[in-house]
Amino acid sequence: MTTPTAPMPATGEHYDVVIVGGGPAGLQAALILARQLRRVLVLDGNRPRHSATMEAHGFLSRDNVPPNELRAAGRESVEHYDNAEVQFANVTRVRREGTGFVVEAKGVRGTPDRVVGADRVIVATGLKELFPPFPMLRAFYGTCIHSCVVCDAWNKQDARIAVFGVKGAKTLAYRAAQLVRIGSHVTLFASEEQVPEDDAARLRELGVVVDRREIDDVVGERADLTGIRTVDGEVTPVEAAFVLPGFEAQLGFLDDDLQPDRDAEGLVVADNFGRTRVQGLYATGELTAPGPEVLIISAGKGARTAIAAHRDATGF
């Protein structure tokens, strides 16, 4: 028994699966589906979260490659298959039509607008970072300041490192503890709400300086971070920093009746294979718990979601 196919919009084409987002999760999903002879379209706005990062790390066979090169290699792998297509376009609306979906997208960088039908939709748009409001933070983000300790700490060996985050940050103590084995000196800027005093005492035993003062801004000279300035005007010398931002899933392109459930962190609620409460709608990569992860894990989640979508399409 085959699953009914959604009607094709009069103005567009029809795909077995449309994937919204062309990062590691979305492209890996597309590759798996293409190899199962599914007709697949990836629509990507080409504004990745890590666009400011100079190198991606920890991805087997692609360690230290610039993120844009990693994504370009992924697109090339997908487009090797005649039944797969990748286009730069901003998805503006996904709506239900019959048993499937209609996906509308605005072309970017000279690509055409699209209106296409799909039996299934995989959302792999990642998360938007919400940084503390420090005027100079963006100037050093991706070079001296990073958000992923697992990804980038190795490159900061023997540096003087600062750790800080948004007001609601919950894992700053863990981040500081990780960095003790990396940096020559670690300073954690955190309120007692962010890091309770019991945890702060344990960190001090590890050699971490716990500074309760509020940060005013990061400071530096040209491309080099040189310090963290607190509201009292004092500058603590550092050469690198790790920031824990807030994160936000942006799913405004989904019609109201297609909005998936969210958990307390704002992440999409899905099963272990990316199935949401909406029939035929999947979410994968950083959109689902536990949120931001190293790239290779996001890619793995994309593969798993693709396998689920393919299996669901068989009707068994």
UniProtKB/TrEMBL annotation:
Organism for this UniProt entry: Gulosibacter macacae
InterPro entries found in the cross-reference section: FAD/NAD-bd_sf (IPR036188), FAD/NAD-binding_dom (IPR023753), Ferredoxin-NADP_redctase_2 (IPR050097)
Keywords: Flavoprotein, Oxidoreductase
Gene Ontology molecular function terms on file: thioredoxin-disulfide reductase (NADPH) activity
Domain of life of the native organism: Bacteria
Protein name per its UniProtKB record: NAD(P)/FAD-dependent oxidoreductase
Pfam families cross-referenced by the UniProt entry: Pyr_redox_2
SUPFAM superfamilies in UniProt: FAD/NAD(P)-binding domain
Annotated ranges, domain FAD/NAD(P)-binding: 15-294
Keyword flag Oxidoreductase: yes
Record PANTHER family: THIOREDOXIN REDUCTASE 1-RELATED-RELATED (PTHR48105)
Catalytic reaction list: [thioredoxin]-dithiol + NADP(+) = [thioredoxin]-disulfide + NADPH + H(+)
